[in-house]
């Protein structure tokens, strides 16, 4: 008996030693495992938290005008930009122990494991917010053990390297709420039409319940199911002492308005402008396509929504719907080069080809101000005269000939002034100037001073705009006149921020004088002459048809070829240019089609500047204004047939008086007859006798 008892004791001791050894081995292995996890987490470091986000494009006044996405709406917001009720509701329904565990809820894991064993399949989840965030960032949503192991490793790394607040913020911004909405901000805007920090308790509880099964609990799909899920969420909040029963009752009964619409569903405003912005991000700023599309950038542009809407409205009103005429339009702030509006065609959906920045078309007479500025620098003045008559020019050492023609073959057959040549757009005067200066002068000026990206050909006909140019370049060139001669370039982007708010690009404008300010002002004043009937001669001034539609001072120039119509002009605050024509270069034959550019321009300027102060072009210190006879360019007096106040660079103003007055001065004047004193009556009788 004693032997049996001793044997049992020995066996018990043996089992005990085995249990202790096994426990020690398990503890060692556990410690090694935990240590390995720490070493793994240390070696791997913090996992990157970058997630795909929509890049947002803002107008100048801070309104969102578009976004780039792949059918997914993702906007990142900080925790303080999320309704506290929504945070409480989410934690309560998804992971009430979130702030107490270290990434894993062991009780929930055990319960889920038992349920899985009973069903012999993976049927129940026990994922914490940390685990779900890890899955959203790095993994798929497959219910497999391999994925769960990977999820655990990522979760461990998240908990080791980030605070609970950072994890919660990341989770709230990556969870899927259905209908393409990722994160609370996109979901709040889609379901309720408001930002995430504006949600009340009722809305928060409803939104917090959606991620469990977005297609099932979406209030857009089924409001009744969404309400049922909302009630469950509210009950958990009561159990977790986050709200009272009274608050739960009020929230469950509160009426909720569901919008079911993404705030920025598609590009609606300035699609051509937005294309240029994205191209600028790629080509000038060197940002890769993936970052542009899903990098969460905030792109602050120069677009003025008032100007853009005015441009689109005027274009639709002025060009009949049935017309095949196309157009390119751009407006710019001349002070800094900010492009305030851009239209590259009549229908973006039909043709995304951007005629404002891509098309190269003959600018016609709109090129002449660039030529005439060079003429002023070379000694011309507004009163410089040359004969307007049919002329044949020989070039290439006399081997070639060129004969320009005026519109409708009308000529003055007499001398006209430079001011008048601009106003009536005399072609002979322009080519004479071009040949006198040397054809290379315009070529160099267009590139070096006015920044044209297309080359002007070294031909006599280039004075009449036969070399192609882009709308955006021509508007930029006129902006240099408008701002007093400072160099500007078309600017579409003011600033770009990363998803974290870091400024990765900011436009900086530095003033550089490229034109003489006095000569520039004289040029501007001459360009105002296209609206002044005092400069009418053999032909009327080219802006006469839109003169009565203008309510403020403008300067500008129109241009016409067989296939192109242009109008470019400016006020002190704004420059705008329009090209109209056919894409395939077909001749513009209908009379009304030839007036589209001018009408669009003047109506846009009036609409865009409505409410702005009316400003005149301010004379510079180095100019002087005198009254001249518009036909001869000489000083005018009250005896001249007409007079026009004209500006000159000081020292170049005329000193002779107009011909009419001189001729009157040369005519001999008869001396007045002396009036004889009347004789008395008796003297008359004496003389009679």
CATH fold-level name of the largest domain: Beta-lactamase
Structural class: alpha+beta
Number of strands: 18
Largest sheet: 5 strands, mixed
The low-confidence parts are 661-676, 681-689
Q: Look at the structure and give the mean pLDDT.
A: 86
Going by CATH, what is the homologous superfamily of the largest domain? DD-peptidase/beta-lactamase superfamily
Task: State the helical fraction.
Answer: 40-55%
Q: How many helices in DSSP terms?
A: 23
What is the CATH level 1 assignment of the largest domain?
Answer: Alpha Beta
Radius of gyration: 40 Å
- Tell me the strand order in the biggest sheet: 2-1-5-12-13
GO molecular function: glycosyltransferase activity
Subcellular location: Cell membrane
Keywords: Carboxypeptidase, Cell membrane, Cell shape, Cell wall biogenesis/degradation, Glycosyltransferase, Hydrolase, Membrane, Multifunctional enzyme, Peptidoglycan synthesis, Protease, Transferase, Transmembrane, Transmembrane helix
Transmembrane segments: 15-41
SSE topology:
Blueprint: H1 2-44, E1 55-58, E2 64-68, E3 73-74, H2 84-94, H3 106-119, H4 129-138, H5 145-161, H6 164-174, E4 181-182, H7 184-192, H8 201-209, H9 214-217, H10 223-239, H11 245-253, H12 271-283, H13 289-294, E5 298-301, H14 305-318, E6 326-332, E7 339-343, H15 368-377, E8 385-388, E9 393-395, E10 400-402, E11 414-417, H16 418-424, H17 427-437, H18 439-449, H19 471-482, E12 493-497, E13 503-506, H20 517-527, E14 555-560, E15 564-570, E16 575-581, H21 596-608, E17 623-628, E18 644-649, H22 659-666, H23 681-688
Parallel strand pairs: 1-5, 3-4
Antiparallel strand pairs: 1-2, 5-12, 6-7, 6-16, 8-11, 9-10, 12-13, 14-15, 15-16, 17-18
